[in-house]
Amino acid sequence: MTTHDTPHHDIPGHDASEALTDRIRRAEAEGTPLRIVGGDTKAFYGRPVEGETLSTREHHGITEYDPVELIVSVRTGTPLRELESALAANGQMLPCEPPHFGENATVGGMIATGLSGPRRPWAGSVRDFVLGTRLITRQGSEQRFGGQVMKNVAGYDLSRLMVGAQGTLGLLTEVSMKVLPLPGASRSLHLDMPLTEALEKFSEWGRQPVPITAAAWLDGALHLRLEGGPSSVAATAERLGGDELKDDFWESLREQRLAFFNAEDTRPLWRLSLPNHTPPLELPDVEETDVLYDWAGAQRWVRSGLDAGALREIVARAGGHATCFRGASGQPVEEPFTPLAPVVEKYHRHLKAELDPQGIFNPGRLYAAF
Fold this sequence. Notes:
Blueprint (H helix, E strand, L loop, with lengths): L16 H14 L3 E4 L14 E4 L6 E5 L4 E5 L4 H9 L3 E2 L13 H7 L6 H4 L6 E7 L5 E5 L11 H4 L9 E8 L1 E2 L3 E8 L2 H11 L6 E7 L2 E8 L1 H11 L2 E2 L3 H7 L4 H4 L6 E5 L17 E4 L4 E5 L4 H10 L3 E6 L15 H14 L15
Parallel strand pairs: 1-2
Antiparallel strand pairs: 3-4, 4-8, 5-9, 6-7, 6-8, 10-12, 10-13, 11-12, 14-16, 14-17, 15-16
């Protein structure tokens, strides 16, 4: 079954690509930088951009949806909640569980930031489910990259390269993604246990066929989500024990509405990405209660006022990297992302120079130099 902007999905479509193309052509001719905006719910993530606002909100709607083949194509100005509702009506979902951070979040913002939710280690990241994209280049031409099938790609896979690029390489107008069925059953558990034991459990369960799709440790307790067949979920829940946990815990974690994120703490919020089974890090000004362990410990949210260079050095020694997700008291920071190694920076510069030599697309969003 294929649909095209039908009322069945409650997403009336509108193609604004011609107007977007004209605006980009003028910006390129005039050398005018553009600040690309969807719902603007993730404006805090990255460096501030100085430029004329270019909104994608008028470019919205599902262009193709095949529930049997588990493929959807959608314009990037489409509200993320509307896409998720259309998928849920067919018993399907975005497996990467992307955060919204506001009612106006769009599909384009999901792709641009590449952020994934609690299910990510077990299902995959946003990038893993992108099949193809449409992109308006600096010359004002709309190009299509990728397609609607999963395949190996030689050389640059420009579709997936756009994930996390924060709009610095061109204007995304459409994305095709793989979707998955909603789980047959879901149950969440709360188990009181110390951090050391929880980390051991993460490692132990990682070697077993346990139907876990979310695992976090916070405030002296392990939080688990089990999903899959009803009998498997029920049997595993009975074996593990613990108390029932409200399912909205995971949405609150994904959207950073938990008390941990809203504490009266003016220190920056850091996101640490670490190898599996990494023990607690020794950070001078960080107590156990200043850390939320997500993704079975591979992603850690930390409140710390430690110097950025010192903190990143500690995390790098553990094999990971650190992003300053929100600055002190929510203020922007000069270098939110880990500085690039010289060789990697060279490739970033070359790619930016090839796709956006005048720097009109979100200049300085990721790094000050490009």
